[in-house]
UniProtKB/TrEMBL annotation:
Keyword Thylakoid: no
Keywords, sorted A to Z: GTPase activation
Domain Ras-GAP: 5-174
Protein name: Ras GTPase-activating protein 3
Length: 179
């Protein structure tokens, strides 16, 4: 709560803590503080807090290669249903390729959320899926050029298709495991 521009604070903090190999303890600490302040498990990690901005930046830096390996091979196809099925499949099967630092952060988030909201068995999934689907994969699908998945912004037809796919992935990512 010290600064207004969370993104401006997140970028140097993440780079500093990544450089010194301390990003997981740092994010775990600020995530724990955020979880303790959260009253409703349905809103966990959904705001633009320092925690979410730091995790976004970490995913961008540590996960760029992961995104390219996972999404790039199929990013240029057009068939919407087939595309969504293939993307969702490659995402859900790519867990072993997820960078260790991201896995460690997600483990910490999951544990923190589960401890805080012990009566909600789904919070351990929704806390993580809000990052991996809503804030990592969906934006990369929506704007593949910003994540170096394509060399330039897609044409309008492809852009519309990618928008629909991104929204579908966000919806799938919002569903809890039990649902």
């Amino acid at each position: 709560e010290v600064c207004r521009e969370k993104q401006e604070a997140a970028i140097p903090l993440v780079r500093l803590f990544l450089h010194y190999g301390r990003i997981v303890p740092f994010i775990s600490a600020i995530a724990n503080a955020e979880v303790k302040r959260t009253q409703d498990p349905n809103t966990i990690f959904r705001g633009n807090s320092l925690t979410s901005k730091c995790i976004d930046e970490t995913m961008k830096l540590a996960g760029m290669h992961y995104l390219q390996v996972t999404l790039k091979p199929i990013i240029d196809e057009e068939n919407l249903r087939q595309y969504v099925d293939r993307i969702f499949t490659v995402i859900t099967k790519s867990g072993v390729s997820c960078p260790t630092v991201m896995c460690d952060i997600f483990f910490s988030l999951r544990e923190s959320a589960a401890k805080r909201f012990q009566g909600d068995p789904d919070v351990r999934y929704t806390a993580v899926s809000s990052f991996i689907f809503l804030r990592f994969f969906a934006p990369a699908i929506l704007s593949p050029n910003l994540f170096q998945l394509t060399p330039h912004h897609p044409d309008p037809q492809t852009s519309r298709t990618l928008t629909l796919i991104s929204k579908t992935i966000q919806t799938l990512g919002s569903l809890s495991k039990s649902k």
